[in-house]
Specification:
Blueprint: E1 8-11, H1 21-37, E2 40-45, H2 55-67, E3 77-78, H3 83-95, E4 99-102, H4 106-118, E5 144-147, E6 154-159, E7 163-168, E8 176-178, H5 186-196, E9 201-205, H6 209-222, E10 228-232, E11 235-236, H7 252-257, H8 262-271, H9 284-290, E12 301-302, H10 305-318, H11 321-334, H12 343-357, H13 363-374, H14 383-388, H15 391-404, H16 411-425, H17 429-441, H18 449-456, H19 458-466
Parallel strand pairs: 1-2, 2-3, 9-10, 11-12
Antiparallel strand pairs: 4-5, 5-8, 6-7
Helix pairs in contact: 1-9, 3-5, 5-6, 8-10, 11-12, 12-13, 12-18, 15-16, 15-17, 16-17, 16-18, 17-19
The structure holds glutamic acid.
């Protein structure tokens, strides 16, 4: 049941590929407006193109929306399953004289188009069966049902983004509603589904603006309520050109796998085409409060990975430690082969979170930097760390172990012992710390090493350092 007066929005993707970030932004805007206004957000899978629709694409859409936490209300509507209802509406228009049977054969239509092309005229159906008596058709001949569209005047879209957009009716021909094989057209399906789902606002990409004029003609013929339209400008690549495969990173999943957080993506996609003054950091709760249809930008937005990184670093830093640990566990579980964050690793992670959080722009970077906490055992030093671990460095490691034997295993004490050792040798603290880091983490960069040794605990730290000491 629709609550009277509350907006009902929808996201209506065609399941022909991945969930594109343009699509994700469309979904987000619809979702935000529904949540902002206390209305509903519905999901309709437009799978009428049987050749191009795939179950994998349906899953990609569902997974992408779920990952972004753009939850929909009600059951998913699958457009193809409603073909009977679409047919019924075409028949109703026919019975009311608002649509007509067109018996033109494909060959005849091709001939018509060729003549139009030759004469340099726009290609459109010439209305040859509009006023002709169907009795003139050969008996039993197949026919399509076409809308008897207005031929004069204008169809005007009052678009919340684009403003007033006018279409001369003489430029819109009588579109097919039902094909001669009995299949409803996409245009009919969209209008009928939007009506049956009680959609009040249609926010989608501006590649559908021309369709809106035709859909409005159909809505008017049916005497149905007209939705509010908002057509969003496309997203462009960092170079200003229309976003394409060439730019890479088109699928929402790709952003997930690069280690961007859902909260980052929601904030980022929101700012791609919507603004609230100069605010850049807009967490979702704030976005729900502020979102409106008036502040959607009219010009194409550009992808900017630097901004995306900065936002992600911000959300990583400000995320609750436990929630971030869950996020990391989920990321590890998606790897091939999957990795499991053990309880031990999780507590280490949480203990080290303070210093880890400040260092990573993406979850991927975070994991690379925290890898030494996930499993026990001797580290395989990377190339740079291997260079640090000279014979001299190994001797220092050995002396550090001797000096810390029996001492409390805490960061301040460990640092003090390292300092004493450095002083005794006329070295800087870093010269003692670096071999310890290389041995304990396998890398030459890490959060403050003494804090990390405390997190690893005495037994584990000693085992790791011992294997690179002399
Ligand atoms: N199925 C269309 C698409 O994926 C969207 C149609 C609509 O929003 O009306 O582009």
């Amino acid at each position: 049941m629709t609550e009277i007066g509350k907006p009902v929005l929808r996201f209506a993707p065609s399941p022909t590929g991945m969930l594109h970030i343009g699509g994700a932004r469309t979904a987000l805007f619809n979702w935000l407006y529904a949540r902002h206004s206390g209305g509903r957000f519905l999901l309709r899978i437009e799978d009428t193109d049987r050749e191009r629709s795939t179950p994998e694409a349906v899953s990609a859409i569902i997974n992408g929306l779920s990952w972004l936490d753009l939850t929909w209300d009600n059951e998913i509507v699958y457009q193809f399953s409603r073909a009977g209802r679409h047919r019924e509406i075409a028949e109703k228009l026919l019975a009311e004289g608002k649509a007509y049977r067109c018996y033109a054969t494909p060959a005849e239509l091709e001939e018509m188009r060729a003549a139009q092309r030759a004469a340099g005229k726009p290609i459109r159906y010439d209305g040859r069966w509009r006023d002709r008596d169907p009795a003139e058709a050969p008996p039993g001949a197949p026919f399509a049902i076409r809308l008897k569209a207005p031929q004069t005047g204008e169809t005007i879209i009052h678009d919340v983004v684009q403003g007033e957009v006018r279409f001369a009716n003489e430029q819109l021909d009588d579109m097919v509603l039902l094909r001669s094989d009995g299949n409803p057209t996409y245009m009919l399906a969209v209008v009928v589904d939007d009506f049956d789902m009680a959609i009040t606002h249609i926010i989608r990409g501006d590649d559908h603006l021309n369709n809106a004029a035709r859909q409005l003609q159909l809505i008017r013929a049916l005497g149905w309520p007209e939705p509010v339209y908002g057509h969003l400008p496309l997203i462009h690549g960092p170079d200003g050109a229309k976003l394409s495969k060439r730019h890479g990173a088109l699928a929402v999943e790709a952003y997930r796998d690069m280690g961007y957080l859902p909260e980052t993506m929601r904030n980022y996609l929101l700012r791609l085409g919507w603004s609230h003054g100069n605010e850049e950091i807009i967490p979702t709760t704030q976005a729900i409060e502020w979102f409106n249809l008036d502040n959607i930008g009219k010009s194409p937005a550009r992808l900017d990975f630097k901004k995306l990184d900065n936002l992600n670093a911000h959300y990583i830093r400000s995320m609750d430690d436990k929630v971030l640990a869950d996020e990391i566990a989920a990321f590890l579980a998606r790897e091939t082969p999957p990795r499991r964050l053990t309880d031990k690793a999780r507590s280490r992670l949480i203990a080290a979170m303070g210093s880890l959080k400040d260092r990573a722009k993406t979850i991927l970077e975070f994991i690379a930097g925290a890898d030494f906490l996930f499993t026990d055992g001797v580290r395989q030093p990377d190339e740079a760390a291997a260079k640090v671990l000279t014979d001299e460095a190994k001797r220092l490691n050995g002396e550090f172990l001797a000096a810390t034997e029996g001492a409390p295993w805490s960061a301040p004490v460990l640092e003090e012992k390292a300092r004493e050792l450095a002083n005794a040798k006329g070295l800087k603290l870093g010269q003692v710390a670096q071999p310890l880091r290389a041995a304990a983490t396998g890398r030459t960069t890490s959060p403050p090493i003494f804090a990390m040794l405390e997190v690893l605990g005495r037994e584990e730290s000693v085992a790791r350092i011992k294997s690179f000491s002399a």
